[in-house]
Amino acid sequence: MARWQESLELLDSEHVHMLEGGALSGLFLRYPLGVANPILVGGFYGILIGIALIPLSAYFGNIGNWPQQILSLIVLTSLLGGASLLYSMALKRPPVRLEDRRRYLFPFPFLGLLVLGIKEFYDLGGAIAWIGMALLVLPGPIYIHVSYAPRWRILSRLERGMAPFEGMSRTIHGAGEWGGLTDSELDEVVGDA
């Protein structure tokens, strides 16, 4: 058992629930924190995107460009993971559990592949390729930025024996909060529109 897991047992149940994360975070957090760094998790997401692009590249005869494309994706997603970690360290915000919100992010990579396939099939250029790649790439970095990097930062502090919530104005998002808005405030905003 890692040191952060032992320290986690000393926290209250709400903080434990928040820091354990969901299934995806749990998958990464099975490994030592040095291996589960947000930069490396971002790079892993880039590899997954690259693997998903193999059939598309092969079908449309662009397999020669695939190695360069996957390296670019790995570097991009790793940099975004690193930027999320720095942002998390600077703002010291708590992680957001994405349990019910994953359904909003889940279809985006598939839509991105669809847009890229349509772009290749009809030989479209310009902004269509950028839109397809953005839809394909962004869900992973959004997950890392909103949920994983803040969680990793707190767990890393626990592992080093530091106060995990030092300097944080709020240590946990309340139930029903997303970006500072409660459900009732969100209903008011939607009702006013």
Could you give a quick summary of the protein structure above?
With 193 residues, this protein is mostly helical. The chain is built from 10 helices and no strands.
Structure description:
It is a single chain. The termini are far apart. The protein contains 10 helices and no strands. It has one domain. It has helices at residues 3-8, 13-20, 23-28, 38-59, 66-91, 102-105, 107-121, 127-137, 139-159, 183-192. The chain is mostly helical and 193 residues long. The longest helix has 26 residues, at 66-91. The radius of gyration is 19 Å and the shape is elongated. Helix 7 packs antiparallel against helix 8.
List descriptors.
mainly alpha
Strand count, sense and barrel status of the largest sheet are: none
Number of strands: 0
The CA-CA distance between the termini, in Å, is: 51 Å
- Please tell me the overall pLDDT: 86
Helix share bin: 55-70%
Radius of gyration: 19 Å
Using the alpha-carbon principal axes, give the shape.
Answer: elongated
Class inferred from helices and paired strands:
mainly alpha
Question: How many individual helices?
Answer: 10
Q: Approximately how much beta-strand content do the residues carry?
A: under 5%
Query: How many discrete structural domains?
Result: 1
The parts where pLDDT drops under 50 for at least 5 residues are: 176-186
Question: Helix and strand string, N-terminal first?
Answer: HHHHHHHHHH
